[in-house]
Amino acid sequence: AEARDPGARTRAAAALGAALAAGVGTPDDQFALGRLLARGGRWREAAAAFARVPAAAGPGPAAAYERAHAL
């Protein structure tokens, strides 16, 4: 789908980021945002998103790894 619509990842990240900023979402959603941003080459933003995943949450250890990778 991305080949047909290269802006899809950008729009998805913006929508998910807005939902999370409004207080809607889970640590899994925050991790998904980090992955979207990383795939788009937005490393600083991805690292910040991964840092917002609580360490005790399910994706916490993976988020810590991905954050280190993004830095």
Short description:
Helices cover 66% and strands 0% of the residues.
How would you explain this protein's 3D organization?
The mean pLDDT is 90. This protein has 71 residues and is mainly α. The chain is globular. The chain has four helices and no strands.
Topology:
Elements: H1 8-21, H2 27-39, H3 43-51, H4 60-70
Structural class computed from helices and strand pairing: mainly alpha
Compute the average pLDDT: 90
Order of helices and strands: HHHH
Percent of residues in beta strands: under 5%
Number of strands: 0
Query: What is the rounded Rg?
Result: 12 Å
Number of helices: 4
Helix content: 55-70%
How far apart lie the N and C ends? 28 Å
Low-confidence stretches: none
- The shape is globular
Largest β sheet strand count, sense and barrel closure: none
Descriptors:
71 residues, mainly alpha, 0% strand, globular
